[in-house]
Design a protein that fits this description.
The complex is a heterodimer of chains A (425) and B (132).
Chain A (H helix, E strand, L loop, with lengths): L1 H23 L21 H13 L14 H11 L39 H4 L23 E2 L5 E4 L2 E3 L11 H7 L13 H6 L5 H17 L4 H8 L8 H15 L6 H8 L5 H11 L18 E2 L20 H4 L8 E2 L21 H9 L12 H14 L10 H12 L4
Antiparallel strand pairs in A: 1-2, 2-3, 4-5
Chain B lengths: L1 H65 L3 H13 L1 H15 L4 H12 L3 H11 L4
Helix pairs in contact in B: 1-2, 1-3, 1-4
The chains are: A mainly alpha (425), B mainly alpha (132).
């Protein structure tokens, strides 16, 4: 009898313990509920997987192969040499490659770019004494591919109704916005041109003629270069003395188009080939296209609507407008409605391109998501000056009129970052 | 003697069953209270999220009807995908029913979630009420 009672007690205790554990750990049983802290098993919820596929397609997601623009191999080969050559800098020693590095997902891993005078990569470059440029280096993924027609944080080169709108005005050097964009860094003071009295007196005139003068010099240098000149001439079927900056930038654009083209991702395999996603990735995708409202701006084939929006990110560095202010798109259009707006960043390889925002003020991808719906979490207003708080207030006003995501939990933010990692290749 | 032992055994078992039933009857409210406490935070969050998703969906639907366009259509679709959280809420609620909660307890948990900031009001009243 005593044995039976003890056995009954032991069994009931075990059952209770199991029940309590199940009750406490119930959230692991549903695909949509918070996932287990460590395991991330494959998603099997057909309804959610189907809804995610359908939403991705409705929002313009296509195979990577559909975005590629064909390029001539000889041109992207010589473009690779131009990309790595400091000849592109009139009076400095800097190449495109110095700020667009493979190890940082084709950006530089720094909050603000370091232009002429900078040496090395990463933190070493930051402390090398180079001139600081007030914006975060943009990665190159998808640039110049099909439909990618809006360039730079403020969209200063853009194709609108079939015409290229840029600071070149009616003198745009090409009808291809990618080639027009490739013309700009070589004439940006502090980016690739060292600010000297000679430059100030002779060339700093904000007109197309000054830019053309610099770029003619650069074209002659490339033509004369023993490694680049002959290949460039052969790629375009021209004698070396007839090469212009147009060929230089065309080759550079060909290289960027080819080397940084969008490639198949796990998400593509999921949407188009029934590939697997984990539970957490699937939950993040459902958030991305659902309550997170991310696709409202990060839609389309590049996960960007290529339009201009405001997110009240903290500001790092002195800003494009000085005193820690960057008025974004306004600097291009001078339309007051465009203050603090920036082009929606595409999200391919986003997990590799930290830090985030126009000024690189946010290091973690999770915090970049938080900035969209809870920006005050990222700043300590008591540590800010009155001016800084006032500027933040102005940015908050613009940002609050955007389509804001629901307030997301920390677990939901982790799910979103897991989903964003499926966009890496 | 054997008969008396058997009779005693029946009585003992009957008493044990009655005691067990009494204990279970007394323990049931405690069990329910424990289940409610363990689950209030997660269930309350789902109540809030589903409520927000339903509101978002309603507003997106109204906007799509007023200003039909691709953008408002996509916003409506986002609202529909957002409603998936209501299925999580529903599943969770059914699990709580499996664990012995009745509609009364669930309603109580929902009320607690809705009135999660009722404490703020108490503070405001406490601070500002005119005391005679």
């Amino acid at each position: 009898m005593r044995y039976a009672s003890n056995l009954a007690l032991a069994v009931s205790s075990a059952l209770f313990a199991v029940a309590a554990l199940v009750a406490c750990g119930r959230s692991d049983e549903s695909d949509g509920a918070p996932a287990a802290a460590f395991a991330d098993p494959p998603a099997t919820d057909a309804m959610r997987l189907g809804a995610l596929r359908k939403a991705a397609l409705a929002n313009g997601f296509v195979r990577a192969g559909e975005l590629a623009v064909p390029v001539v191999p000889a041109r992207h080969d010589v473009g690779r040499l131009i990309f790595a050559s400091p000849i592109m800098s009139l009076n400095g020693q800097i190449s495109c490659q110095d700020c667009h590095l493979d190890q940082f997902g084709s950006a530089d891993g720094l909050p603000n770019a370091i232009g002429v005078g900078g040496e090395g990569a990463g933190a070493a470059r930051l402390h090398s004494g180079g001139r600081i440029l007030p914006r975060n280096v943009l990665p190159f993924w998808g640039r110049g591919s099909r439909g990618f027609d809006t360039f730079f944080w403020d969209g200063r080169v853009q194709k609108v109704n079939g015409r290229v709108v840029s600071q070149f005005g009616v003198h745009a050097p090409s009808t291809d916005p990618m080639i027009v964009a490739a013309h700009l860094p070589s004439v940006e003071v502090r980016e690739m041109v060292t600010d000297t009295p000679q430059i100030r007196d002779g060339l700093m005139s904000e007109d197309v003629g000054a830019a053309a003068s610099i770029q003619s010099t650069l074209a002659r240098r490339f033509a004369a270069d023993p490694a680049i000149g002959p290949k460039l001439a052969a790629a375009y079927g021209l004698p070396r003395d007839r090469l212009s900056f147009r060929e230089v930038t065309d080759a550079l654009a060909s290289f960027i188009r080819f080397n940084f083209r969008i490639k198949p991702t796990r998400f593509e395999r999921f949407v188009h080939d029934n590939g697997p996603l984990s539970r957490r990735e699937m939950a993040g995708g459902v958030l991305f296209y659902g309550r997170g409202r991310c696709a409202g701006c990060h839609g389309g084939p590049y996960f960007s609507d290529m339009k201009f929006h405001s997110v009240a990110f903290p500001q790092a560095g002195f800003g494009k407008n000085g005193f820690g202010v960057d008025e974004g798109r306004y600097n291009t259009t001078l339309n007051p409605k465009d203050r603090f707006l920036f082009r929606t960043p595409p999200l391919y390889n986003v997990a590799k391109t930290a830090p985030y925002s126009h000024s690189g003020s946010v290091v973690r991808l999770e915090d970049a998501i938080v900035a969209h719906f809870d920006p005050l979490r990222l700043v300590d207003t008591r540590e800010m000056t009155v001016r800084e708080r006032s500027d933040l207030y102005a940015r908050l006003g613009t940002a609050s009129r955007e389509t804001l995501p629901s307030a997301l939990t920390d677990e939901e933010i982790r799910q979103l970052t897991a989903f964003l990692r499926t966009l890496s290749f | 003697m054997r008969f008396a032992f058997a009779r005693n055994r029946v009585i003992t078992h009957a008493l044990a069953i009655v005691a067990g039933a009494l204990l279970a009857w007394l323990a049931l409210p405690v069990w329910r209270e424990a289940v409610m406490r363990w689950n209030q935070k997660d269930y309350g969050l789902l109540v809030e999220q589903c409520d927000g998703a339903m509101r978002d969906h309603y507003q997106a639907k109204m906007r799509a009807a007023d200003e039909p366009s691709r953008d408002t259509g996509l916003a409506l679709q986002a609202g529909e995908v957002g409603l998936i959280v209501c299925q999580d809420y529903d599943l969770y609620q059914k699990q709580l029913v499996q664990w012995g909660l009745r509609e009364d307890e669930l309603a109580q948990m929902r009320l607690k979630a809705i009135e999660a900031r009722a404490g703020d009001l108490d503070e405001v009243v406490g601070t500002h009420e005119i005391r005679f």
